[in-house]
Task: structure prediction
Amino acid sequence: MSVSHEQQYHCPYCGEEFTITVYDTVTSTKDPDLRDRVLSGDVFQHTCPHCHKEFMIQNQMLYSDAEHKFVLWLSQKDAGMDMSEFAKPLVLKGYRLRRCVTIQEFIEKIEIFEDGMNDVAVELAKYDSFIEFLENKKGKAEDVTSIDYERVKDDVMKIIVRTGDKGMSFLIPVNMIEEELKTEEDLYTIKEEEFPVINRDWIISVFKEADGKEDITNRYA
Result:
């Protein structure tokens, strides 16, 4: 079941103190309404009762989905301790375990895993889309504000490369990305029990280990 607690918080705008509800764990299969609030970002949204300003608070959260078999941990820092006792039984049951650094990554990861996709493949697809964006002279690296996973339909992944308020779609066959992963399988190996962070920084670190990638990865960063 989902677990929450109340805590005192000082408004970043007016400085007044008030009580907020923070969710420590969310169990999506038992609390589907709460799952919807996580995906919309509403669960992180708070309103000061004094000045009525709205703002987001990124608190640590453990999110589990028994149907799709994944557990996500929202935290900017790693645990600083061995989590294998908690993680190994889940890995043996086929769960995917990830740590997410930002709310945006957290929400996107839920969407990826609910779609039945491999997030390593998604990060590779994002990278490939970025390279295609540059090579086709659609814009400059410094113009890119985000690269987002949109959806998978008919085994084709849609990636959006955003530049400000504009976005360019890239359609990438899933089987093409899967073949790309297979060619260098050792390069993309991860340890589930360590709650790995699989994001842009991770794919950059992977490619910096490969020859001839450093110039491009610096631009991707």
About this structure: The radius of gyration is 19 Å. The chain has a mean pLDDT of 90.
